Amino acid sequence: MTGTDFDLRNLEPGQYDDLYESFEWDVPETYNMAEAICDRWATDRSAMALYWENADGDAESYTFHELARLSNRCANAFRDHGIERGDVVAIFLPTLPEYLTVTLAGLKLGAINMPLYHLFAPDGVADRVRDASPELLVTDEGGLEKLAEIDYADSMDVVLVRGDESESKTGDRPIPFEELVEGCSRSFDPVETAPTDPAQLFYTSGTTGDPKGVLHAHQYAIGQRIAGQYMRDFHESDLLWHSGDLAWAGGFANLLEAWTLGMPIVKYDGKFDPERALELIEAYGVTIFVTAPTALRKMMDLPPETIDSYDVSLRVVSAGGERVTPDMLEWAEAAFGAFGTLGYGQTECYSVGYPPLGDERAEKLGALGKPLPGFEVTILDDDGNELPAGESGELAVAMDDNPTMYLEYFDRPAATAAVREGRWHRTGDTASIDEDGYVWYLGRRDDMIISSGYRISPAEVESSLNGHPAVKEAAVVGVSDPERTNIVKAVLEPAAGVEPSADLVDELQEHVKSNLATFQYPREIEFVGELPKTITGKIKRNQLRDEGETQ
Length: 551
What we know:
Layout: H1 15-22, H2 33-37, E1 48-54, E2 59-63, H3 64-80, E3 88-92, H4 97-109, E4 112-115, H5 122-132, E5 136-139, H6 141-147, E6 157-160, E7 175-176, H7 177-181, E8 198-203, E9 213-217, H8 220-232, E10 240-242, H9 249-259, E11 265-269, H10 274-284, E12 288-291, H11 293-300, H12 304-308, E13 316-320, H13 326-336, E14 339-343, E15 352-354, H14 361-364, E16 370-371, E17 377-380, E18 393-398, E19 408-409, H15 413-418, E20 420-421, E21 424-433, E22 439-444, E23 449-451, E24 454-456, H16 458-466, E25 471-481, E26 485-494, H17 502-515, E27 524-527, H18 541-550
Parallel strand pairs: 1-11, 3-4, 3-5, 5-6, 6-7, 10-11, 10-12, 12-13, 13-14, 26-27
Antiparallel strand pairs: 1-2, 8-9, 9-19, 15-16, 17-18, 18-21, 20-21, 21-22, 23-24, 25-26
């Protein structure tokens, strides 16, 4: 059941079993991602692919036909410059249309695209460039300034997008993008690639160690098409705005989910602002809005009358990339009359996310969902044994017949082998699967708190605290305790207008005791103006733990 026949909102929960049991992957012998997400739609010269706008209000739009021709010019230019199949091309750009032109060109050449987040500091860029040794790096003026502060490889040429190359501070004249593609043909025959040929190299954020390159194949797009349909109810008639950056696997995955269906997208080059978000949603007629929990909470802080003043037609609101609590989805559904859902995926792979429907919805809201059709998961103990329903352990994803599964950690065979257990990829996430088949996220394995012999999920405690009206957002960590080994500590951002007090601490502790269990309540509560977060919006729990140990 796909296409116009498929609509999550109109399906009954029991239909999941039929979908899951009958699903089969259709992976051809040859498959090029650029052809699948762009060129196949380019025969219709009016089919829109991209609406782009920046913080200054500059706006551009592109059809699939226009992007196909522009990327063909770029692919010819790259080839003439010596880029060959298997070479790494680094893309160090903000959210610009050229980002997509370069990405498509690399895929058509059989090269490996390496996205670099444009807000990386020089050291972050240097670490990744040294690890992957790209032949070419495409950037803008802001990127050039950062390159000037690092010792990048002499063999790596630099292409400048939308900038003045005469003001380069790198000491070398970068190649202007327009000069590079000037005179190049708008026709290009993509190289013949196998589904498992490498295509995209994403680097993890490095919050738990040095960043690792996660290498994905062209068939990643095949898997993401299914994830988009069954996780977020994507249809070719929709218009998607994913507020995340294309340099992150999640942002790129949503691009694939949309473009494999021929669905247009909106991309915004600017800092997230909740009212600006509503303006964009209204102006373009966005029907599917995908964002980070941090951004969604900023929208939740807006007065209801502000939200009501915008004429929006959202059909689906989805959040992912960090813990999504039921109150966020309930708010989205009440505020916009949309279907609220969450997305779970890693840089390495996707697996679950089929949402609760019908009578199950109220009880299961907040679960990661069931395994998506075509995907298989289990729970493993420390020895690699599969655990029964209801028991917590490490969430593992089957590697066979999973097109979203990464090929390897780039040039790190030992690191790759360390997370593989037979046919399973160990995610590093602690979870459980209930009797109905729903997966419940309990936190990263390193985040689990052992207190007085109890294993306590920080995610559960955070969810309980986030459900209290006095709390804007909560982060829970374990800190050392001589009597209990560790105790639960909560670091909270209070809701607007709430003043921290001893009485509020007592109230919040009782709230957790009554909603979860006595042993799970936070024995320490600290109020802060703002929780520390990574550039991708994830809470820096290591920092909170370290600060807790020194107090």
